[in-house]
Specification:
By secondary structure, the chain is an alpha+beta fold. It is built from 8 helices and 5 strands, in the order H-H-H-H-H-E-H-H-E-H-E-E-E.
């Protein structure tokens, strides 16, 4: 149960969920009762408490302002943690080992065309074997060298990435939470430096 839900339930005598929702809707005294019911349901079930609703609740329980504020902030903190954990789980689920290409520009000069041409996945990544992280270090280095050589063969010796400028280096990413610096010659130069939030750009065709 969310901290805000626990607080409100205690304040109103620990009613059951449905009774709690109805009691809060009654106290809000909103003109659009259906909308109020939906908002309070999200508050109770999901801890969703936008600023305007928080102010309404503080007005309903002015004598408990400090405790209610604390419950709201604890709820928001827990929601942020939960959403971050969900995003991380989603990233791990869709992650595939790859070589990430670092370029002189942080953003493409033509972002729409860049996205239409495959975006980050096509322009700034080169796939690696799915089990590369389980192979011995020498084999991993060989496969990274091959990926860099393939990139040179595709882009030419200048390694110009369309709309992103020249290549300045690479990142070897065998697992979602790992990254290793790779020099222009394809040599892995440093140990694991942790997670890396890659840019995103793509166009979904419907």
């Amino acid at each position: 149960m969310w901290p805000i839900t626990e607080f409100l339930a205690r304040r109103l005598g620990n009613p059951r969920r449905r009774e709690l929702i109805h009691a809060l809707v009654d106290r809000l005294d909103a003109r659009n009762r259906s909308k109020a019911f939906r908002r309070i349901t999200r508050l109770v079930d999901e801890g969703e408490c936008p600023p305007d609703l928080a102010q309404r609740l503080l007005g309903i329980f002015p004598e408990d302002r400090a405790a209610l504020n604390e419950a709201i902030e604890r709820t928001r903190a827990r929601r942020r943690q939960q959403m971050a954990a969900e995003r991380e789980a989603q990233e791990r689920a869709r992650f595939r080992p790859h070589l990430f290409i670092r370029t002189e520009r942080a953003r493409p000069t033509q972002i729409t065309l860049f996205a239409l041409l495959g975006g980050v996945d096509r322009q700034l990544k080169r796939p690696l074997p799915g089990d590369i992280a389980d192979r011995d270090p020498a084999e991993q280095q060989r496969l990274v060298h091959e990926a860099v050589a393939a990139h040179i063969a595709e882009c030419g010796p200048e390694r110009e990435v369309r709309f992103m400028g020249r290549t300045t280096g690479y990142l070897y990413r065998p697992r979602s939470g790992e990254r290793y610096e790779v020099a222009l010659d394809g040599t892995i130069t440093e140990g694991d430096r942790g997670a890396f939030h890659e840019p995103r750009a793509a166009v979904a065709l419907r």
